[in-house]
Write a structure and sequence with these properties.
Blueprint (H helix, E strand, L loop, with lengths): L7 H7 L2 E5 L6 H16 L3 E6 L16 E3 L6 H5 L3 E5 L4 H12 L4 E6 L10 E4 L6 H12 L5 H14 L10 H12 L4 H9 L4 H12 L2 E3 L4 E6 L1 H7 L9 H5 L7 E7 L5 E7 L6 H6 L4 E2 L3 E6 L3 H28 L1
Parallel strand pairs: 1-2, 1-4, 2-3, 4-5, 5-6, 8-9
Antiparallel strand pairs: 7-8, 9-10, 10-12, 11-12
Helix pairs in contact: 2-5, 2-6, 5-6, 6-7
């Protein structure tokens, strides 16, 4: 799929004040895409603010040393959101995922623009620039910079590299193409350093994070004839080790390292007693975006997420039942095709 960027030109030409936002609990694709887009707009002479509902996770602060990404209610106000001419929404198409920033946007008459690669989508009343085949929103921001003829500065190249590298599992997921690697090469040409990004992301862990991971490993369960693996992290684990929510990043992927697994999930109890669930699949016949949508979430066929209201034990049972149905359903279809 190729995005037709031309309709964005008049929006950029006719407006000056831009606010960029992304989903709650932002990951590297969200933060990196926001920072990359901000640089593109700034180089076009625009006034830009980046405002999110959630704070930037500590492990991603290296992407934003000058703290340009603000949290609503702390470094930015509702008035800052409402007064924008244009709201850019990146790496999500969900009102729920925008949370409080989304509520502020609804008070505004500003034009809305979505740049996203997720399949799941709400009607945000926005001009949509989506490519669900893209491996990361960061790739789309790079494509936009090329369309606009903007040469990215080194900090933007680093942010977009981190966005793409993390959302592709460091280039191992099926969505990665030769085009993805050409984009990575061009980002390196203008200043992105893979070794520095990897070191900043994965070699700065706290003892608390490692202890939390160890606990998550010890709780791993395999079911559905070995095809489904999952683990869980109750709030008490965070309290015991002094860990933070960002310390759980990528733990769901560890479940897929178990031989024979085809799908996985991790259930994490948050500070407000909600349950954040990340889903993964190896095979297209186990559509985890469909599972996530059952709980008000969404994402991609092979990677998705949802947040349940709790309580923790009840949510775990519901998610396990839904994933069991998905995995066993896929196996049944496969067996039928084999028998025929």
């Amino acid at each position: 799929m190729t995005i037709r960027w031309e309709p964005l030109r008049p929006i950029l030409a006719q407006n000056q004040r831009f606010v960029i936002s992304s989903h709650v609990r932002p990951d590297a694709d969200a933060i990196g895409s926001e920072l990359g887009l901000a640089r593109v707009l700034q180089m076009l002479g625009k006034t830009v603010q980046i405002i999110n509902t959630s704070p930037t996770p500590p492990n991603l602060q290296f992407l934003d040393p000058s703290h340009e990404v603000k949290q609503l209610g702390t470094g930015a106000s509702i008035a800052d959101v409402v007064s924008a001419d244009v709201h850019f929404i990146v790496d999500t198409s969900s009102w729920t995922q925008l949370s409080d920033v989304g509520k502020a946007m609804r008070q505004s008459v500003a034009c809305r623009v979505v740049i996203d690669h997720h399949v799941s989508s709400d009607d945000l009343g926005a001009h949509e620039f989506k490519d669900t085949d893209s491996p990361a929103t960061g790739s789309l921001i790079f494509e936009l910079s090329q369309f606009l003829g903007v040469t990215l500065p080194p900090d933007a190249a680093t942010a977009l590299f981190a966005a793409i590298a993390t959302d592709t599992g460091w280039f191992r997921f099926p969505a990665v193409t030769s085009r993805t690697m050409r984009i990575i090469g061009e980002l390196m040409d203008v200043g992105a350093s893979p070794s520095n990004v990897f070191r900043s992301l994965y070699e700065q862990a706290s003892l608390a994070k490692m202890q939390l991971a160890g606990r998550a490993f010890s709780r791993m369960v395999v079911c559905c004839a070995g095809e489904l693996a999952y683990t869980m992290i109750p709030l008490s684990d965070f309290q015991e080790f002094g860990a933070v929510s960002s310390d759980t990043e990528d733990l769901v992927n560890e479940c897929l390292k178990i031989s024979g697994t085809k799908a996985a999930f991790i259930a994490i109890e948050t500070q407000n007693r909600q349950v954040k669930v990340s889903f993964r699949s190896r095979i297209s016949s186990v559509d985890v975006a469909h599972v996530a949508e059952q709980f008000g979430g969404g994402g991609h066929r092979l990677a998705a997420g949802a947040t349940l209201s709790g309580p923790y034990s009840d949510s775990l049972v519901k998610v396990l039942q839904a994933m069991t149905v998905a995995v066993e359903g896929a196996r049944s279809v496969a067996n039928t095709l084999t028998d025929s």
